Amino acid sequence: MRSLKDDWLLDCYSDAIRLQLDPKFIRLLLNEIHRRLDDPVFRRTWFVLSGKISSGGSREARA
């Protein structure tokens, strides 16, 4: 089951990409995301979100 912390992490990452924040900060977020990929639900959510980010979709499109 996804936790609020997982949702926060994914939202934070998508905002950091959209706002073009410091690459070191984005890398730290990505390291934490990769650490959590053992969880199948988190992994599935991450792959959906990462596809939307790379295709230029926004967080609002997920709602």
UniProtKB/TrEMBL annotation:
Family annotation (Pfam families): Sda
Alphabetical list of InterPro entries matching this protein: Sda (IPR015064), Sda_sf (IPR036916)
Record-given protein name: Sporulation histidine kinase inhibitor Sda
UniProt lineage: Bacteria, Bacillati, Bacillota, Bacilli, Bacillales
